[in-house]
Amino acid sequence: MNFNDYKAKIFSERPDVKEEYEALGPQYEIICAEIKCRKALGITQKELAERMGTAQANISRFESGNYNPSLAFLQKMAQSLGKTLKISME
Length: 90
Prior knowledge:
This is DNA-binding helix-turn-helix protein. InterPro entries: Cro/C1-type_HTH (IPR001387), Lambda_DNA-bd_dom_sf (IPR010982). It is built from six helices and no strands. By secondary structure, it is an all-alpha fold. It has a domain at 28-80: Orthogonal Bundle (434 Repressor (Amino-terminal Domain)). Helix 1 (3-13) crosses helix 2. The termini are far apart.
């Protein structure tokens, strides 16, 4: 059984797990976008942290999903990566 089959099985058996999984989607989308941008620029977590004026540990926690960033943190991160932060509600 591959991962997608396993996930479908669990989701059909446990709607609560599916709901929690889907709720985490936006968080992981922004994390993946940040990592992709950082790697495209060829900079380390430490270099990004220096650009942002924060500790490397904060970048590490953010990238591992163990940090609930403020809007100001996300704005500073986007600016430090040469990007614009856009937030939408659909």
